[in-house]
Amino acid sequence: MKRAGTVSGVTLTLTLTAAAVGMTLGACQLVGDITDRSLESPGGDDGATLTDSRAPGVDGTVEKDGAPGSRPDANASSDAAIDGGNDATAPECLTNAQCTARASAEATEAGSVAATGDAAFNGILDGGVVPAVCVQSIGKCAPLLTPDCRALYGDYTNDNSILVGTIFNTTGSLAGANIPRQQAALLAAQEINSSVSGGGIPGVDGGPVRPLLVVECDPTANTIRTATHLAGDLHVAAVVGPNVAEDILNITQQVSASAGMLMMSPTVPIDPVTDLKDNGLTWRDIPSDSQRAPLYGDQIGALVTQLTGLGRSNLKLGVIVRNDALGSSALHAISSVAFGSNLTVGSPGANVTIDEYALSDTAAQAAIATKYAASVPDIIFVIAQEAVASIVIPLEQQLMTAGTPANKRPYYIATDTAKTTGWLSLPTGVASDFRSRVRGVGVTPDSASVTVFDAFNAAYKGAYSTNPGTAGMGPAYDAMYSVAYAIAAGGGAPVTGASVAQGLSQLDYGSSFPVGSNMAGAAFQTLATAGHISLQGTFTVMHWDSKGDMVGGTLQVWCVSAGTPAAFAASGRNLDLTSGMISGTYTACQ
User: What pLDDT is stored for residue 120 in this prediction?
Assistant: First the structure.
């Protein structure tokens, strides 16, 4: 491997279905003007430059709505969208080595030196090397590393390498959950490039094998700048990520849809992605909030019944909402749940409170913890990962300090986005029964994926020595495999976002193969001969509908075991996303 660079009196009525949820927005709004699936121009005089602005729409776009022509043209070039056309002049480069030598020489002449810290990062490696590639579609050199994209996996001197990207917030407040997701995606790339798998994606018509070259990017500082480097400078065909809801909306509208770059998010469940203006290029491999809504409502109802049976009355519900698209969509999903007399979660009153905060506003988050310590909700719905450390744990510590009795402490329902190791810990000053009051809703392997998921977990632990079990790790691994197999399914077609999108539709029927290195060689061979396979992911078959949403799979209610070490475990309550049926009995973890 080569590397470079450095989430009495309660009436509860559920009107949710597995197929759809009819709701009104609660306290915060979804990002507007994004559901017409025609593409907006990203701005500029000729509509061809990539900017941060949003401009009026452009006609004649390709959509993922199942209508004729809904699949992108796999042979279409996306270069014009980036370059505004390309003349017939001779290319400035032919090989990656040529571009690397040129960029390194220029850095030396300029007196640049290798960066020694994050603030000084300039894309120069030890020895004065500046990794660069020759973007063959335009015949131009482009540096691989930037302040946002600081690491590589793969051989950047190999002209047969296929360049893909990852976009994960691996610094800042979201780093704890996203480093494992990033590592899971890289693990898949390493396995695909391993000798066991044949060294990479097979060559065309017996040509040289095509290993993956992964540019690892972190959009924390500047999302659009990060995406523009991948799509505009490097002409990357496909990206695993991003992990932030706002990022997937903004990148799609301002960069990727017009540039022809496919994105596969393993973590963003928000409903607006389904009908996003994306030219058929924004995908995800996890269930949406609408698909999760019935199980959220089921668990709110289950806790109401449980707590009423324990003698609690006049129950109160608190919903902790990050005031962005992630929080808005999850709130939207539960807003039609009735709680108390003539109230729904989306229309709060005395017994239902919705408390918003900005991701960067730590003071607001601390204030919510203090508010809840003074007037303790019986049930708290937690949507985002940072709220566990910034709100839940401080609240629990304040309750212990105040001597709040056990029968007055809150119970928690978490989304999969909020499934972090914070629930497993027992910090100083937190009650010993804390973990027994925690449950959440998230994906779980269906029967055919149990062994696949177990194999992934073992491989991850073998590669990184530990396995935090963070939500999104398995889907990130699946996404990288899906992209690689989709490229292989395209045969000799130019590797573009459109061709990858077409290839993804060829992974849900035919001979069955699990993700993982053991069967990768055989899967590549079958794709070469049959053109399609049925790809079994860590949770379910990798099958998407015409809008890039996953079809099928299983959701579970998880709980936290109090063993040593504590771990997430299945409660026995599940939702089958194909039938829409909820089954099984919730059993608290021991």
Answer: 61
